Structures are given as structure tokens and as C-alpha cells.
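#struct-help
A.M.: can someone run this one for me? Single chain, 144 residues.
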Amino acid sequence: MPKGRIRAVVGCAALTLLCVAATAATVSMSDATLNLSGNAVEIRFAECHQESVKSGTETVCSGPVQHTTHARTAEVAYKGRVGETVRAARTLWGGYEPVKTDFVSWGIWILFPLLPLFGTAGAGALTLRELRRARQPAAADEAL
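D.P.: on it. C-alpha cells below:
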């Protein structure tokens, strides 16, 4: 098996694994944003402030999580005001994301994981094609 073919198979397999990871991350983000798993909590904002980010500033509010047995404070990037209560779900990386309930958000966050899923399918097809190409010359040599 030529070295170039082995590199192509390994490269395509690595691309497929990256696409699988991207698909898993977008599914997790969709789950948190739409509260598909039903694990949202209510957070009553006790403090809101502006934070600088790369694209400008964003409002970040924090407050205690309601209806829990142990006291914990959660921070949410949300344009709210002190005293407001919002539903938020925990994300994959440990933060909280406000739950979206409008029709447009549902459409976007349901369709969003399809993009990396299609990329995964394409990269998987490339991996299989390169694997078959790498095995073809070896099978032809064995027949002789």
C-alpha cells in the first residue's frame, strides 16, 4: 500500500472524526437552547452588568437558581433586568443558556445540527472511497 494512500485514509478519517465532534457539539447546543431534555432551571436575576467581548459588549446577568435544595448562583448572557426570572439550561461547557421558545429559534436550532451532519456524511464517504482505493492495488497484486 503506497504511503500517499495511507495518508489520504488517515486524513479523511481524522476529518470524519472532527465532523462527528462538531455534530455532537451542535446537537448539545440545540438541546440546551431549546430545552429538549427538559432540565431547565429558573434563575432570578440579582445583578446585571455589561461585559466587553470581541464583537462589542453584552449584558450578563446572574442570580440564584430557584427551587433547588442547595444554593448556587448562575450567570447568563441575557439582556435582562434585576428581579426578572428566566428559564435557562446548562450547556455542554458548564454555563447556562436562556431557553428559546419562539418559532424562528426552533427552526434555526433544529436545522443547525444538519450542517455538520451532512459534512460528516461527506467526510465518511471520502474515507470509505480512499480506503477502497488503498486496498485495490493490494487485491490486484494478490490475484497474480
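A.M.: thanks! The longest strand covers residues 56-64.
D.P.: also worth noting: The chain has a mean pLDDT of 86.
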